[in-house]
Write a structure and sequence with these properties.
Layout (H helix, E strand, L loop, with lengths): L10 H14 L8 E2 L2 H8 L3 H13 L3 E4 L3 E4 L3 H27 L4 H16 L1
Antiparallel strand pairs: 1-3, 2-3
Amino acid sequence: MKKILDESKPIFIQIKDQIEDSIMDQSYKVGDRVPSTNEFAAFYQINPATAGKGINELVAEGILVKRRGVGMFVTEAAKEIVIEKRKQTFYDNYMHPLKEEAKKLRMNEDELMEMLQREDKQNED
């Protein structure tokens, strides 16, 4: 678990993001048990309901599954679900604003692609 939660976003979102990050970097694999609501609450000294909100959202999204009396476990589809969610977030947060700004600058898709390729080339050098 990440040692410190910050003020940048709600705590339940940070817990949710932390579990998703662990799934993405394979710290949690399919079938692994994730820390319980009470474990998160004790570790971060927060209300269990706050930790539970983040975990329950992951259950609702099909990323975790509850096994009554045993805990929460990573589903087989978890990583793909997280990737698809993050692609959509990437599009919403970066691609849409990028295209809107390009439109204001009267740039077409070819010019945008040329800029992306130029960026790739600069990073290679």
